[in-house]
Amino acid sequence: MTKSSKAKPGNVTVKVMRLPHGMDLPLPEYQSPLSAGLDLVAAVGWDTPLALLPGSRTLVPTGLQIELPEGYEGQVRPRSGLALSSGITVLNSPGTIDADYRGEVSVLLVNLGGAPFEIRRGERIAQLVVAPVTHAALVEVEALTVSERGAGGFGSTGQTTEQADAKPTKSRSSKAAVKKTAKKPTRKRGSK
After folding, report:
1. pLDDT digits (tens, 9 = 90+) for 116-175
2. Is the pTM of this model over 0.70?
């Protein structure tokens, strides 16, 4: 029996195959007309839910294999409701499913909450977003074009004007002094 999600004209077609342990589960589907992601459900046993303890992670099967068309990837993303209510999220978010992968789609969940969480059969655990992929051609160069941002990263553009004005700056001489006083790491006897 072949079923399909309601695809609109111009949308990409993804082939889906159910595995024996996922036969009675619904295919991933969009929960609203403008949803970006298809909800993936857990294909764990009816009588064997997974207990996800705080701070632990587990790989949850979906009972599905997919075939993405060339030029597309599947992005496995967290469900915002699970993250907010229970601290359950996708550990390698977004997880990537390449177009040439044919194994079972599984979701790596982690419990960042303070209480154990039970994953039951058919529970919506993540979203699958199908997106186009661009392959980059890397070109090695001697120098990069100078930009206003430069090497600033990890919050360097996320400050208010007041925070940036109040932030002390280091001169070249203070940076050099830090380098000179930094100690070399020492190796304990017998370690490699």
Report:
1. 999 999 999 999 999 999 999 999 999 999 998 888 888 877 766 666 566 555 544 444
2. yes
Count other C-beta atoms under 10 Å from residue 34's C-beta: 5
Count CB neighbours of 131 within 10 A. Answer: 13
- Per domain, the residue ranges of the chain are 15-132
**pLDDT tens, 18-74?**
999 999 999 999 999 999 999 999 999 999 999 999 999 999 999 999 999 999 999
The CATH number assigned to the domain with range 15-132 reads: 2.70.40.10
76 phi and psi angles, rounded to 5 deg: -95, 115
Pairwise CA distance, residues 38 & 129, whole Å: 6
